[in-house]
Specification:
By secondary structure, the chain is mainly α. The protein contains 13 helices and no strands. The two termini are 38 Å apart.
């Protein structure tokens, strides 16, 4: 799959194909991540591509937490992929934590900033948005012409003018077009809610929590093939792998006609059995 931040999704079927493709990508071991991180620091673009592709599915997990906030899921995923790429270039394996634990911050920040920008535009009147877009198109065209002229003459005559506004508002932009929007700024007349609060789905898990659940689900799916039918079914039910929810030990016990304690023992035995397998060894942290 070509390395790109943009996902060309024209319909639900295209998105489904993308999700299936990234879901089939093999997960990395901690050793894989350490090796890739070292190669990335040495400028190995192939290693960068491998690190990114192996973690694209987790961008989707985070992006889904911010649906229905003004951007389509495909756009949220694209923005999250930009954050993932930044994380892959900056990851330091010597710190001792997993790559995705580090990358989730960059993914979330990229998505939130895109949503904040969308919110800024929504707050502007339609005629102001059109004016802003017209001005920005004019600026880009003029800057391209100036760059070409500078390359041809080599005198760099406009460099001073460019520096004068390079870190601030472009002189052609009206004040309302460049006012930064803080994620911590209060929304409306009440100070009780910030933009961050509005962008977050109050009924959903935080992205970090959802990400950890998805990591665990993925690991269990890959590992249960080594178990007996009953052990596999207990883990599938307990972690909610083949249904829309996870079942409690009591509920699983009712299904099998066994006590809660007996189901707990089966679950624990299954996880312990998986500890020495390639994928199952990562489940040890969830055994208790």
């Amino acid at each position: 799959m070509k390395l790109t931040t943009k996902i060309q999704v024209r319909d639900d079927e295209s998105l489904d194909l993308y999700l299936k493709e990234i879901g089939d990508t093999e997960l990395l071991t901690p050793e894989d991540e350490e090796e890739l991180a070292r190669r990335i620091r040495d400028g190995d673009e192939k290693a960068l591509e491998t690190m990114i592709h192996a973690n694209l599915r987790f961008v989707v997990v985070v992006a889904k937490q911010y649906q229905n906030q003004g951007l389509a899921l495909s756009d949220l995923i694209s923005e999250g992929n930009i954050g993932l790429m930044k994380a892959a270039r900056r990851f330091d394996e010597k710190k001792g934590f997993k790559f995705i634990s580090y990358a989730v911050w960059w993914i979330r920040q990229a998505i939130l900033h895109a949503l904040a920008e969308q919110a800024r535009l929504i707050r502007l009147p339609v005629n102001k948005i059109e004016e802003l877009r017209r001005i920005e198109r004019t600026i880009k065209k003029r800057e391209a012409e100036m760059a070409q002229a500078g390359d041809a003459s080599g005198d760099g005559g406009d460099e001073g003018e460019e520096r004068s506004y390079g870190k601030g508002r472009h002189p052609a932009l009206p004040e309302w077009a460049s006012t930064p929007l803080s994620l911590d700024a209060p929304v409306g007349d009440q100070d009780a809610y910030t933009l961050m609060d509005r962008l977050r789905d109050q009924d959903s898990k935080m992205p970090d929590d959802a990400l950890q659940e998805e990591l665990l689900r993925t690991e269990v799916r890959r590992a249960v093939s080594n178990l007996t039918d009953r052990e596999s079914e207990v883990l599938n039910l307990y972690f909610g792998l083949n249904s829309d929810r996870a079942y409690t030990l009591e509920e699983i016990g009712v299904r099998f006609g066994l006590t809660r304690e007996r189901i707990r023992q089966i679950k624990q035995k299954a996880i312990n059995k998986l500890r020495h397998t390639r994928h199952g060894s990562r489940l040890a942290a969830y055994a208790d």
